[in-house]
Amino acid sequence: MIRILAFNENEIHELDGRRIDEVVNYPVVWVDVVGYTEVELGMIQKRFNLHPLAIEDVTHGSQAPKLDEYDDYLFSIVHSMKYTKGKISYEEIYFFISDRWLISIHREDRHIGEIFSKASKIFGPSTPHKTPDFIYYSLADRIIDDYSTVLNEVEESIDSLEEDVEENPSKEMLHRMDDLRRDLVTIRRSVWPTLTFVRDTLRGMNLLISDQNIAYFRDLRDHLTRLIDQIEAYHNRVNSVGQLYLASVAASTNAVMKLFTVLATIFLPPTLIASIYGMNFINLPEFQWRFGYPFALTLMLLVAVLPSLYLKKKHVL
Q1: All domains of the chain in start order, with CATH
Q2: Are 47 and 36 contacting, i.e. CB atoms less than 8 angstroms apart?
Q3: What pLDDT digit, counting tens, does each position of 18-41 carry?
Q4: Residue 91 phi/psi, 5° resolution?
């Protein structure tokens, strides 16, 4: 589906996709392609003279965020991200930006749909710069805001994992740690390339971004930089949870070994006495003694109790 917003100085007109040839009559136009087909892409490519390689990127998908510069327009890819049922998913959104038009191509991104439906309020008379680069900034800013939401979900998962590791570490938590690491890598693969091309924009590499709107792109850069810092911090936290898990397991193992050592210390002397009197030698003096058996039992009891009292005094037990 193709839908069009045509901007005059004080008005915004919504046009049907079949009226795409009328875009030349307006100073600024936003063409939004939702759930695109090859026919619609071909129509857009022909009408705006888009490069085949850019259209090929849209068709094939699986692209990293980037910003390519062509003769009279820019081609940009931004990832829209969401966190659903503990899984991170993202959609590639494609933008073509010139000095007169903006083309957005996506499957069905809710942020773009919301901005399109509320364009009269968002880009009303009070909006100072209704230009393609400003519309592009508005869309990218809304999309990037979701990165913070996803990171907040990841942070909650890390908090929960930390509590579980402290209370009752288990092997299942290792899988949760691996999942969190993969999630953070996935987010970073979207955020870092986006930050890179925004920085390139601020260095003046893309002349289609006007000076009057450059401050908005600085805001994007600052937001993305904070996100990168958060990702690194969360990655360090996950590693710390891993160290905490190993320390907890080691502490549990040490506690078991300590128990076995104490038991061995207590029961080894009685075992020694029992083994001595268990030898089948005829000339063991106590064998013929009337009180030999009670004596052996009493001796074994004493050599078990005395180490127990000593270990308790030393706070080992």
Answers
A1: 2-248 (3.30.460.20), 252-313 (1.20.58.340)
A2: no
A3: 777 777 777 888 888 888 788 888
A4: -125, 140
- Answer whether 0.85 is exceeded by the pTM: no
Q: Which two tokens stand for residue 169?
A: 């570490």
| C-beta neighbour count of 149 within 10 angstroms | 12
Which of 183, 231, 224 lies closest to 82 in space, CA to CA? 183
β-sheet bridge partners, residue 106: 34
For 153-206, the pLDDT digits (tens) are: 888 888 888 887 777 777 777 788 888 888 888 888 888 888 888 887 777 656
Q: Check residues 247 and 46 and name the one with the higher pLDDT.
A: 46
- DSSP β-ladder status, 101-106 and 28-34: parallel
Contact partners, residue 64, CB within 8 Å, separation at least 6:
77, 189, 193
Residue 44: exposure state from Cβ atoms within 10 A (0-12, 13-18, ≥19): buried
More confident residue, 230 or 253: 230
- Cα–Cα dist 27/9, whole Å: 8
Q: How confident is the model over 51-95, as pLDDT tens digits? A: 888 888 888 877 888 888 888 888 888 888 887 777 788 888 899
**How many C-alpha atoms does 191 have within 13 Å on its Cβ side?**
26
